[in-house]
UniProtKB/TrEMBL annotation:
UniProt keyword list: Oxidoreductase
Protein name: Acetaldehyde dehydrogenase
InterPro entries: Acetaldehyde_DH_acetylating, Ald_DH/histidinol_DH, Ald_DH_C, Ald_DH_N, Aldehyde_DH_dom
MF term (GO), any: oxidoreductase activity, acting on the aldehyde or oxo group of donors, NAD or NADP as acceptor
Lineage: Bacteria, Bacillati, Bacillota, Clostridia, Peptostreptococcales
Source organism of this protein record: Maledivibacter halophilus
Length: 503
């Protein structure tokens, strides 16, 4: 291998790791629930012990976010996640339906490929490792090129913890020679059964195009609507705390604020009081020039996960030292309105509408650039929440922060760092991904009817035949050359049968 080019070496490493991972997956299938729980407990223990170290490594290597917040994300991905799933049944018999005589049996999917983003590298490794092993699987990771050191360190810690507690070697692994060729090899190799793709749109699309079953998640562009009945002070506090958590690197974080004309002044005053800086039109243009690249408004990586002060300095504008978020007013959505796009940093767009109907339409337009992800509403009117339930968002967070609520920290949703966006967002799931998504469910179905004479004993079918026969014998118009089941006759018979059943 020493004489091979780097990319060829990386492909060979991927193949070797995949083979070892598959063997580990086969051994995992034989472990009991008690053995798996022992493994998970030790993984949580070591993740907690190294949460601060991994948080610091992630921030230092990527330049994104806040070390203490990344450490807390590691805590979320380990201890808080474990508290939610520790009693979850995802192996063996998971449900029995005595009435229907059906037994549901869970079985691991096998070897999982986990793609890791640069925005949440260590928390993603911890989270995906725990949910994968909880479901009885093995997992191999492909790190993001800009987060290799912290990702591999997190993998090593999780692997050590699992193996110390009795898991087979190779149950958690990653490629160290990170290339697109190696990742592509893992996506297409026979050993991998499922891909969990958390990352940029290109990588997610590649995962779905691989021919493998995949769970991919799309980009977010979450609006936060402050409705006229909302507690403005609390709403603003929630939004700012959510947005500056790890400097906005969670994809469910708020991207725009929408308020009504009736509470506009109160919202603006509260935002200013809590550290929001409203930029002038010229300042907004200056910030957007450093924030985005190209006509598609792709974020400049140097601005991802940065403080408001850093963004302001890059843009050459002066802001108060206590500024937490930069806010730019926008009059529309799409091209020509840069702040209507996703901004994984300490910057927000700001909109004013006349009423909830206009807010509803605006949120729909904003979500068009982050279909299926997350929407947050601050209101005391439950009817408004129901009105927004038809919007293309898989998580509608009410009276809580978007990033913290969407990821399950401040709501009852499952703790997760892979947030499904549903089919409208190009995802195969619309929920926060957990162990329940990483299993195959077999159905053992016992007979409830006799196989012989099943058709003859079907009262509904017999009633349909009687009505059809009666109609064809008395109504010559329905007799189309003796075709008993012509479309017209059949539809009339079905309507008649339905009418009989309603009596």
């Amino acid at each position: 291998m020493k004489n091979l080019d780097f990319d060829l070496n990386s492909i060979q490493e991927a193949r070797d790791k995949a083979r070892r991972g598959l063997e580990a997956a086969k051994k995992m299938e034989k472990l009991t629930d008690r053995q798996i729980d022992k493994i998970i407990v030790n993984m949580v223990k070591l993740a907690e012990e190294n949460a601060v170290l991994l948080g610091e490594m992630a921030t230092e290597e990527t330049g994104f976010g806040v070390p203490t917040d990344k450490a807390y994300k590691n805590h979320m991905a380990s201890r808080l996640l474990y508290e939610q799933i520790k009693d979850q049944k995802v192996s063996g018999i998971i449900n029995t339906d005595a009435e229907k005589k059906i037994i549901s049996v869970a079985h691991p999917v096998g070897l999982i490929l986990g793609l890791v983003p640069s925005t949440n590298p260590t928390a993603t490794v911890i989270y995906k490792s725990i949910i994968s092993l909880k479901a009885g699987n093995a997992i191999i990771f492909s790190p993001h090129p800009s987060a290799v050191k912290c990702t591999t360190k997190a993998v090593e810690i999780m692997a050590q913890a699992a193996e110390e507690a009795g898991a087979p070697k190779g149950v958690i692994d990653c490629i160290y020679q990170v290339t697109l060729a190696a990742t592509n090899e893992l996506m297409h190799c026979d050993e991998v059964s499922l891909i969990i793709a958390t990352g940029g749109p290109g990588m997610v699309k590649a995962a779905y195009s691989s021919g493998k079953p995949a769970i991919g998640v799309g980009a977010g562009n979450s609006p936060a609507y402050i409705e006229k009945t909302a507690d403005v002070k609390k709403a603003v506090s929630d939004i700012i705390a959510s947005k500056i958590f790890d400097y906005g690197t969670i994809c469910a974080s708020e991207q725009s604020i929408v308020c009504e004309r009736s509470n506009h002044d109160a919202v603006v005053a509260e935002l200013k009081a809590q550290g929001g800086y409203f930029m002038s039109e010229e300042e907004t243009d200056a910030v957007c020039k450093v924030l985005f690249r190209g006509k598609n408004y792709t974020m400049n990586a140097d601005c991802v996960g940065r403080s408001a002060l850093v963004i302001a300095e890059k843009a050459g504008i002066e802001v108060p030292k206590d500024t937490k978020v930069l806010i730019g007013k926008q009059d529309g959505v799409g091209k020509g309105y840069p702040l209507s796009y996703e901004k994984l940093t300490s910057v927000l767009g700001f909109y004013t509408v006349e009423d909830w109907q206009e807010a509803c339409d605006l949120c729909y337009d904003l979500l068009d650039h982050g279909l299926g992800h997350t929407l947050s509403i601050h209101t005391e009117n439950p009817k408004i929440v129901l009105k927004f339930s038809v919007k293309p968002a898989s998580r509608i967070v009410v009276n809580s922060g978007g990033s913290t609520g969407g990821s399950g920290l401040t709501t009852g949703l499952g703790i997760a760092f892979t947030l499904g966006c549903g089919t409208c967002g190009g995802s195969s799931v619309s929920e926060n991904v957990g162990p329940e998504h990483l299993i195959n469910i077999k159905k053992i179905a016992f007979g409830t009817k006799e196989t012989v004479n099943t058709v003859e004993n079907d009262d509904l079918w017999n009633q349909l035949k009687i009505n059809v026969s009666s109609k064809t014998s008395t109504d010559s118009k329905d007799s189309l050359e003796g075709n008993l089941f012509s479309d017209e006759i059949l539809m009339r018979a079905i309507r008649r049968a339905i009418g009989d059943l309603r009596v």
